Amino acid sequence: MASEACKEKTSSVLPQMTSSSGLPMSSPRQQRMSLLLAQATLRISAIVFTLIAISVIVTNAQSVIVFGLKFEAHYTNSTAFKFLVGANAVQQLKNYFFLLLHDVVMMVLIISGCAAATAIGYVGRYGEKKMTWQPTCGYVSKYCNRMSISLAFSYLAFFAYLLLTFTSALTLMSRPTTQ
User: Fold this and answer.
1) Is residue 120 part of a domain?
2) Which residue, among 114, 97, 94, has the nearest Cα to 43 in the 3D structure?
3) Distance between CA 159 and CA 50 in Å, rounded?
């Protein structure tokens, strides 16, 4: 009878256990559900950010006349901007290992596209005096500003994929192995 009372006492205490930080401890099932919810949210965010970035880049164009010559700014004039559109356009996969692999590849593709577009954008905005490349954003400021917006959304997509890489790795590591 005393042992039954002791079992009742310990079972009523266990669900209320807290971690060393004072926060209630969650079950592995709750942790897994939280991780899956975080992944779903990050995947949706990454898709939304890339769709916004693609739509801004593709619809971005400006024409100006400089010294009697027509100058057109469009993403297809730059291989770096075309690469950024391509890097943003890749689809999603389903298997955990392939999701991790996909997330790593997407993260690398997007950051390399962002780096190339940032470099070209910097030269467009400020020029390169040592190479005698003149800035062009003074002529097509609307185009440059919209490209900056698209680039910002591409960087947000990169950060979403960076977090997805971490959560995919955690999911893969926490899966039970079968012998």
Assistant:
1) yes
2) 94
3) 11
Which residues, 6 or more positions from 53, have their beta carbon under 8 angstroms from its beta carbon?
Answer: 84, 88, 150, 151, 153, 154, 157
| DSSP-assigned letter for residue 16 | G
- Domains: count for the chain: 1
Nearest one of 119, 105, 121, 97 to 46, comparing CA atoms: 105
Torsion angle, alpha carbons of 80, 59, 51, 53, to 10: 50
**Boundaries of domain holding 161:** 99-178
- 36 is a domain residue: no
pLDDT, tens digit (0-9, with 9 covering 90-100), for 108-125:
999 999 999 999 999 999
| Separation of alpha carbons 105 and 103, rounded Å | 6
Q: How far apart are CA 1 and CA 147, in angstroms?
A: 75
Neighbouring-strand partners of residue 24: 18
Interval 34-71: pLDDT, tens: 877 888 888 888 888 888 888 888 888 888 888 888 88
Rounded Cα distance between 96 and 91, Å, is: 15
> Would 84 be classed as within a structural domain?
no
